[in-house]
Fold this protein.
Amino acid sequence: MGEAWFYHLTRRSPAETLHTLLPRCLANGWRVAIRSPDEVRLRALDDALWQGPADGFLPHGLAGGPHDAAQPVLLTTGTAANGAQVLMILDGAEAAPEEVRAHDRTCVIFDGLDGEAVSRARAQWRALTEAGLPARYWSEESGKWEQKATKNVDPT
């Protein structure tokens, strides 16, 4: 069963956060789908990932190309065609409980300085944990990532 990890951003942008998370996912051999309902945001993220440091190149592509299935990281507004084990959602995109169960991990990345984004993330937390899914809440408020809460997580 998959887990939902919530990342409450207060110091870093989503692009900076992804530059931290994506190499870890790829090192684990996971394919990643990044979902946003905002195509403009995905194009900007695509540019940001291409312009990252040369020693930190993150292979990726925008959905709709001829090689979607081969992309280690696929940016999409819908369902990923790359067999992702990890789903990262931005900008209030939703992930249904069945979808979270189908992935090893689902990361809900949200702007903690945006009240509407926080409300959507709380609603997503409730929906997923009430469906029995394990969830972890991470905050960067102190300057480093700290796990602040868990629900339905096996303590062993």
User: Anything to note?
Assistant: Residues 115-130 form the longest helix (16 residues).
